[in-house]
Design a protein that fits this description.
about 300 residues, mainly alpha, 14 helices, about 75% helix, globular, EmrE-like, DMT family transporter
Length: about 300
């Protein structure tokens, strides 16, 4: 039974909700980014994401029955890449506005499409070429204005970390594509959160901060928001094709923009405004390409 297109309206609403929850997670992390070490942030974000994810799996009858695996090394690779992406993403967020750090993560589907060509032998189509060209143009107009400024070096480091996070996320999702043939979504989500928690905990010997009450709550909320965002996105993709959800990436970007303007008092850079339609356009083309590939595979069966 195909659940992907059964309830497209529900899928769209859940995608919008996931965007709001993801932005709330990013705001929580940004608010403590200058005082709390990176590994400590990753630990709280991952550990407290377990709570909503486990509750969700219990309600679906997939915990603990759905956690069995035949590909432990596949989970280790996927989770390791995902944890590294989280470290890079949060490090980028400490140096960039929320909207810019979020926009760079929208490069993930474009990099996945290109990775499918290089690593999985998938065809390099016109759509993939167009997605890559739009993404490269978006990166250029985002990054180039900062190169000549005095504060450009720190901002440039944030851009590099954001690109690295998108690249690592693409690698993690390509791994998911391979192991999902035998592994459940429940096991993939659960082991990723567990390994990310352990990766954050491993940084304890390098020193963690003594948290204030507000910092503690912000970190806990980052985990709860992150776990809930993952659930909402999972259900959105269950009810609607990724290509149908792609246009709503523009709506999802409203929340990070408002966070920068209203919470952190950060103006929108001209480079960001130019890069926004280019990068999201590339992501949309990549999503359409993914839909075409799935259709071709289903017709061959």
């Amino acid at each position: 039974m195909n659940h992907n297109v059964d309830r497209p309206t529900a899928g769209i609403l859940l995608r919008l909700l996931s965007g709001l929850l993801f932005a709330a997670m990013m705001v929580s992390i940004k608010a403590v980014g200058d005082e709390v070490p990176l590994g400590q942030t990753v630990f709280f974000r991952s550990a407290f994401a377990l709570l909503p994810i486990v509750i969700f799996l219990v309600l679906r009858g997939q915990f603990p029955a759905g956690l069995g695996t035949r590909r432990p090394m596949g989970h280790l690779l996927r989770s390791g890449l995902g944890a590294a992406a989280m470290f890079a993403s949060f490090a980028s967020l400490a140096l960039l506005p929320v909207a810019e750090a979020t926009l760079l993560m929208q490069l993930t589907p474009v990099l996945m499409a290109f990775g499918g060509v290089v690593l999985l032998g998938e065809p390099f189509t016109c759509q993939r070429a167009g997605a890559l060209m739009l993404a490269v143009a978006g990166i250029a107009v985002l990054i180039l204005p900062s190169l000549g400024s005095d504060a450009g070096s720190m901002r440039f480091e944030g851009y590099v970390l954001g690109l690295l996070a998108a690249l690592l996320s693409a690698g993690a999702l390509l791994t998911v594509r391979r192991i999902s043939r035998t592994e459940t979504a429940a096991s993939i989500a659960f082991y990723f959160v567990v390994i990310s928690t352990l990766a954050g905990l491993a940084t304890l010997p390098w020193g963690w901060a003594a948290l204030t009450g507000s910092q503690w709550w912000l970190l806990v909320l980052s985990g709860l928001f992150g776990g809930a965002a993952h659930i909402a996105m999972t259900l959105a993709l269950r009810y609607a094709e990724a290509s149908r959800l792609a246009p709503f990436e523009y709506v999802a970007m409203v929340w990070p923009v408002l966070a920068d303007l209203l919470i952190f008092g950060l103006p929108l850079a001209s480079g960001f405004l130019l890069a926004l339609p280019l990068i999201l356009g590339g992501a949309g083309l990549a999503a359409l390409e993914g839909r075409g590939l799935r259709l071709k595979r289903s017709l061959r069966r």
